[in-house]
Automatic annotation (TrEMBL):
Similarity comment: Belongs to the protein kinase superfamily.
GO MF entries: ATP binding; protein serine/threonine kinase activity
Origin species: Ananas comosus (Pineapple)
Gene name as annotated: LOC109703691
Protein name: PTI1-like tyrosine-protein kinase At3g15890
Keywords, ordered alphabetically: ATP-binding, Kinase, Nucleotide-binding, Serine/threonine-protein kinase, Transferase
Keyword Oxidoreductase among UniProt keywords: no
Superkingdom per UniProt: Eukaryota
Lineage, broadest ranks: Eukaryota, Viridiplantae, Streptophyta, Embryophyta, Tracheophyta
Biased composition (Basic residues): 348-360
């Protein structure tokens, strides 16, 4: 149905397209010529990033509006469906913490999606990427981003009709506008959940390190899978560690495995991003990390809902942007921390936030 609608829309003439600016559709249908001009023929210097199914370019329209244009790599049936899903979902949802769809182009072998341009790029670029060295995200901004992303996801789970499971929550899909307001993006893997349905069984999509164990193993997807991914995102935001890191000898360790023994000991100084140089709110950090461990519980029934996540984050004081508490940062993690994590992981089975990666 979605694909048929897109084909009908994109078959219109330029004159018909302009006449449809009378809001028959919640988006604009661009011409290829417009987007080629805006992106300087998809010039390499305009590239903002590249994902599994497309490349995103910066552009500027003739009216001077900055845009981001995702260009699908290849016109396979799979890519066509993801294009249709993303246009369909973004066309129906409106929330301050969701990336807005400006429009699209679908013709010949080209599938292009046009979004608002996010001048502060993505959360991952500030935690691990090219912007990480330019400006360290201070603690109040990290709280603001976490709350904003949580509110966007809560809207998808609880207010959108039908409800929407994102399936690919990660730092690169949390974009930041000029005020560092979080915008959840990239709905190519999203699933619409009919009323009364608690979970779906489907092919596994998403990113390693963020996948809930029940989804990674059996393809059972529900809103709690997004909650798990969001828990990983919270840990990543607080610690600036990647979801999966390589240890000497080629051993891989997930962020929950690293964090769990430190949480048990209350070593918040060892958990926080050392680049903050001690400038963070200890209570907010503790609440954020403990919430992250609840979100990543191996039992999906024990995870909070995204509504509850929003309430907990806001109640911790992040919404009030309190004065940052200066605390003393402990020593960098060494071999003792790594070995301690291995020794104590087995003890965490009895905890409500036990390590779940062993189930994968």
């Amino acid at each position: 149905m979605i694909k048929r609608c897109l084909c009908c829309i994109t078959g219109e003439s330029e004159a018909a397209r302009r006449s449809n600016d009378s809001h028959d559709y919640p988006w604009e249908i661009y011409t290829l010529k417009e987007l080629l001009h805006a992106t300087n023929n998809f010039n390499e210097s305009n590239k903002l990033g590249e994902g599994g199914f497309g490349t995103v370019y910066w552009g500027k329209t003739k009216k001077g509006v900055e845009i981001a244009v995702k260009r699908l790599k290849a016109m396979t049936a799979k890519a066509e469906m993801e294009f249709a899903i993303e246009v369909e979902i973004l066309g129906r949802v409106r929330h301050k913490n969701l990336l807005s769809l400006r429009g699209f182009y679908a013709g010949g072998d080209e599938r292009l999606i046009v979004y608002d341009y996010m001048p502060n790029h993505s959360l991952i670029s500030h935690l691990h990427g090219r912007h990480a060295a330019d400006r360290v995200l201070d603690w109040p901004l990290r709280m603001k981003i976490a709350i904003g992303a949580a509110e966007g996801l809560a809207y998808l789970h609880h207010e959108a009709s039908p409800h929407i499971i994102h399936r690919d929550i990660k730092a690169s899909n949390v974009l930041l506008d000029s005020d560092f307001t979080a915008k959840v993006a990239d709905f190519g893997f999203a699933k619409l959940v009919p009323d009364g349905v608690t979970h779906l069984t489907t092919r596994v999509k998403g990113t390693l390190g963020y996948l809930a164990p029940e989804y990674a193993m059996w393809g059972k997807v529900s809103e709690s899978c997004d909650v798990y991914s969001f828990g990983i995102l919270l840990l990543e935001t607080a610690t600036a560690r990647r979801p999966i890191e390589k240890l000497p000898g080629g051993v891989k360790r997930e962020i929950v495995q690293w964090a769990a023994p430190l949480v048990e000991k209350g070593r918040w100084d060892r958990l926080v991003d050392p680049r903050l140089a001690g400038r963070y709110d200890r209570d907010q950090l503790r609440n954020m990390v403990q919430l992250a461990m609840r979100c990543t519980d191996g039992d999906p029934e024990r995870r909070p809902t995204m509504r509850e996540v929003v309430e907990i984050l806001k109640s911790s004081g992040g919404a009030r942007r309190r004065e940052t508490e200066v605390v003393e940062v402990g020593e960098e993690e060494g071999e003792e921390g790594e070995e301690g994590g291995k020794r104590e992981a087995s003890q965490l089975k009895k905890k409500s936030w036990r390590v779940s990666s062993r189930m994968r």
